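Handout, section 4.2: multi-component inputs.
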Amino acid sequence: MRATVGQYWPGRSPLHRLDPRTKFVAVSGLTVALFVRDSFASLAVFAAAAALAYALSGVPASWSWRAFKPLLWLVALTVVAQLLVAPGEPFLTVWFLHVSWQGLETAAFLTLRLFVLVLAGSVLTLTTPPVALTDGLAWLGRPLRRLGLPTDELALMVTIALRFIPTLLAELEAIMRAQRARGAEFGRGGPLRRARALVPVLVPLFVLSFRRADQLALAMEARCYTPGQPRTRLHPLRAGRADAVALLVTAAVIALALWAGW
Amino acid sequence: MTASRLDAAVTAGMAVTVEGVSFAYEGGADSVSALDDVSVDLPAGSSTALLGATGAGKTTLLQVVRGLDPPAAGRVLLDGVGPGEARYAALQREVGLVFQRPERQLFAATARDDVAFGPRALGWPEEEVAAAVAAAMEQVGLPPGEYGGRHPYSLSGGEQRRLALAGVLALRPRLLLLDEPFVSLDPASRESLLEVLDHLSSGGVTLLLATHDVDLAWRLCERLVVLREGRVALAGPWDLTPAGQRLLAENRLRPPFLAGLWQRLGRDPAAAPRTLAEAAEALA
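Output:
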């Protein structure tokens, strides 16, 4: 079994080499700015920038489909809702449904915006390993330490959780096979029967996970992990000239988009 | 109660023929070949040790025989019946597979319910389930009167493993595949598990036992199959003649301890005893 956790695409593009903090700040900025103007012109600027960034990342274009696929239901829902409720002169009437140009336009706009949003987000996750992303977030969250928020510990928790997802999936697979070997059937019958069929899988999975968590905690303590102590990093985050350029470009894109949508 | 299943104290073991089976684990571009043109014969009622280094394909072969992994090439005949034939699915259900560390599959609130899981999943009538559970627990040395109501997690490690074995035995397998059943058991638990398997084997069940332990293999199994990098390196009855021992050594296996002892004593290693008791008797 192979699982893609997050959706990191290993590569050596300029975007891969950027500091995770830079990428996070840039994408956050773009996301906010994306919702400032309701104009196609501004959206076009963002779309072009996101597409350019995606191309720069070196990830095959076909991979973006993975990010878009889960959106299709949401898009369908948005389009239908817009077509139904939007005001304006109907150009097509089927029974009680009035489809107006205005509704069509709004639906297209919202759909496009959603795609740009997801495209920008996936550039971040495709070019940043989950652990680097967590490290970056922990650094950005540092001011919150003053409020007593254990940001480093939270980051470590997320890192550990990500690390163990493939392990748990492998374990899940092994348990399912074992139960199947003694007569279990999964994915058959009604929802109640399907849910009940999972009990023989979930109980051992939880027991094993708790046991593993216990052992991991002990092993970390045995290697002197002390919560709250400042830690040094094997790979310290380092922002360079490329990061400054990236942030400037992002700012320029945002300015251009806002100006275009005036 | 149906007599056929319940009074099967002596089981007619299943014959297995593995014909040119290949299997690879998919890993995207880098798929790993685990079995490469493997052919193995397990006569009905025989007991065979499956030896080989870690990663040689032992676990994969067991899972392929049980039908959990469809082979990329080749086929597995059960009692001469091939996949695609009508009886095949029913025969597959008579193949018991005991996974590595099977105690990890225990989930029910009582030992009895856990053993009953398989028979119930197959929809056996409740009184037949009860009889099968009682018999299986008795077989593994966990009498249902004493252990039936206990929580599986309250049992010792060795007891848990035998309970998991009972969960497989309750389905009355005619072929039992075991994946490293002795790993991390204390000596006493090993001994009681050995007795259970010995008993099953003499009761007629066909055994295929993946293990690293040559001495256990010698004690339990009259035949062996050695896998090396997914291929059959050696197969057939034990051969402890000098030539046979050289073959074992080539596969990084030493001869069983008792065979070595017999050789040191100037006796025929091929006629070495299988157990300490037999050795003591022969030497007395």
